[in-house]
């Protein structure tokens, strides 16, 4: 079980980094005429790639082992009152997987030269991270619960 404030803290950091990615994507737009190596080395692409790897880390290792979760446990949680309730880590872990899929799709399309692919997919991920950090509404968690109710995802796995 995890402190429900940890995913919101993680989403806040992620939202800020995604916003920086969006700004950088406007400063360095993806142009199909640019060589693929130049597209891949753009600051927006590199930052989105780093965020995508962090999402993958959270999806495979779990939210308890995520670097931002470690920051929360080490720097923030000791200064807060104990949580009134704990939360199952499976929905936030699945949300990390959804974040990976969205950001990875933006990376692939951006590398292929699709105009504004990085901007669009970083914006989608930003909206999800913003909703989680500010309002506590986790789109990936809600998707997980819908899949559990529909039975494609087992509660034991």
TrEMBL record:
InterPro entries: DUF4395. It comes from the Bacteria. Residues 2-149 form the DUF4395 domain. The chain crosses the membrane at residues 9-28, 40-63, 97-118, 124-147. Keywords: Membrane, Transmembrane, Transmembrane helix. This is DUF4395 domain-containing protein. The lineage of its organism: Bacteria, Bacillati, Actinomycetota, Actinomycetes, Micrococcales.
